[in-house]
Design a protein that fits this description.
369 residues, 9-stranded mixed β-sheet, 28 strands, alpha/beta
């Protein structure tokens, strides 16, 4: 019997304004090379969880293209690989299109793998979590459900809307929404370990309580009835819950201390690879403190920015504190600061674009400005 299978839960209210207009947050580009979902899939793979189901809420096209057959994440395909779980029945009914109904619609994934445990984790909370540690805590506790949390000291600014746990003697005694009223909080990482039989029971129980109940709802409801083990995660964590936080946390990775905390030789982050040539740095190029993906052509100044694949930056152009997605074009002489350019967008006529350091200016996919 397989010890554990994984479920990547994409049912969330995360909205990056224009970035999530045509795609789910999980497939949004990150650091010019990755998609947000790469981190949770890599955690699953590195934790030797080889059968993973991805609960897709909406807008699946870009996600299907990115995931392909799932081989890029080094899963043992003989043990299961990646399964895409889509609730077509309720795809156009928001009240019913939640994770519980998606699991019910795809119950064969849980039943056919015959695992002892199910690890559920989101894509929009970036961690480098070894799920085996959470499973070990779960087994030692004797509980049927484990919730993973992290102690944070900025809950008044970050993790707004996430669940804040009251933890006593390694047991979750209460769950409430973080409204930003206090700094210190034990924030749920929306990562859970279930006994498989318990998860199946919870799914049925949720239906009886309310047809609109999500997994988070039913856990809050059951908190008074069941012993829920609490496992503290102490590593890197960021909740990508808005365009502003996506921008802020992306640029944080230009700090070596931050990137070193996530990218480790013993914990690789996998992604879908593309065959593109090296970036060309032409005679007038100057690049400082930036991530630059393959295939770009640069003949201007780039500072403290993230440059995606196949980006063109013209002669004399200046790009500062900005994120440029693949295929975007910056015309010669343009000046960009605090800007996010989506895929295949072009700065052609408006040559001086500046957003706020906390609220970046966003250019939609394919737009010409």
């Amino acid at each position: 019997m397989v010890k554990a299978i994984g479920v990547v839960n994409l049912h969330s209210d995360v909205d990056f304004v224009g970035l999530t207009e045509r795609r789910p947050a999980a497939s949004v580009s990150f650091l010019g090379r990755y998609a947000l979902i790469d981190f949770v899939l890599s955690n699953m793979s590195n934790s030797t969880i080889d059968a993973v189901g991805v609960l897709i809420q909406k807008k699946p096209r870009s996600l299907l293209k990115h995931l392909g057959n799932g081989n890029s994440w080094n899963f043992n395909s003989k043990a299961g690989g990646v399964s895409l779980l889509y609730n077509e029945k309720y795809a156009n009914n928001p009240n019913y299109n939640h994770d519980i109904n998606n699991l019910i619609e795809n119950i064969a994934f849980l039943e056919s793998n015959k695992a002892d445990y199910v690890v559920v984790a989101p894509a929009h909370i970036i961690t480098t979590m070894n799920y085996n540690d959470a499973i070990e805590s779960h087994e030692k506790s004797g509980a049927e459900i484990t919730m993973v949390y992290k102690k944070v000291h900025d809950a008044n600014e970050a993790y707004i809307g996430c669940d804040c746990l009251t933890v006593k003697n390694k047991t979750v005694t209460a769950i409430e929404k973080n409204r930003g009223s206090r700094k210190d909080c034990s924030i749920s990482m929306e990562t859970y370990v279930f006994n498989t039989k318990t998860l199946l029971k919870v799914m049925k129980q949720a239906q009886k309580i309310s047809s609109f109940f999500s997994l988070r709802d039913v856990l809050a409801y059951l908190c008074d009835e069941k012993q829920i083990n609490a496992y503290e995660y102490k590593g890197y964590a960021r909740c990508m819950d808005s365009l502003e936080h996506y921008y802020q946390y992306s640029l944080e990775f230009l700090d070596l201390d931050v990137s070193s905390a996530v990218f480790k030789s013993n914990w690789p982050i996998y992604t879908n690879t593309n065959d593109t040539p090296p970036t060309k740095y032409l005679s007038e190029s100057e690049v400082v403190s930036s991530f630059v993906a393959n295939g770009a052509m640069i003949n201007g100044t780039v500072e403290n920015s993230i440059i995606g694949r196949d980006v063109t930056i013209g002669t004399g152009a200046v790009v500062k504190n900005s994120i440029l997605f693949s295929g975007s074009v910056v015309s010669p002489g343009a000046h960009l600061e605090n800007v996010i350019m989506d895929k295949h967008s072009k700065v052609k006529r408006q040559l001086d674009l500046k957003g706020d350091s906390k609220t970046p200016l966003y250019i939609k996919e394919g737009d010409v400005v």
